[in-house]
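Researcher: Checking consistency across runs. Here is Organic hydroperoxide resistance protein again:
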Amino acid sequence: MDAIYTAVATATHGRDGRAYSSDGKLDVQLAPPVELGGNGQGTNPEQLFAAGYAACFASALGLVGRAAKVDVSEAAVTGEVGIGKQGEGFGLKVTLRVELPDSVDQATGRGLVEQAHQVCPYSNATRGNIEVNIVVE
């Protein structure tokens, strides 16, 4: 694959530090959530992954919707990223909740969501690596 764009971000001090992008558009304080023993006073990698996956999936849905001439511009995608013990380390699981506009019938919407899951770069990166569940609401 030839990259069209490459995002560059740096994290310091792991989950209890800071993450920032090379262009300065992202600069966030990181802190583990209370559930992982942290103070919860910053964002965390799971929240960032959830936001990125949700945004990317929504774009993929828009792409396949336009190709099918179905307006899904008002769709909302919510990403949920769970982290937990897996073997010796930790693992992730994802749920994507896709809320389709009322103007899109369920069968058409589900078909578009399935197509989006095939073209979304995050879906392609996670396929076969972590559990991803998609819920169409």
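Researcher: Does this match what you'd expect to see?
Model: One thing to look at in this run: The chain has two domains: 1-43, 45-136.
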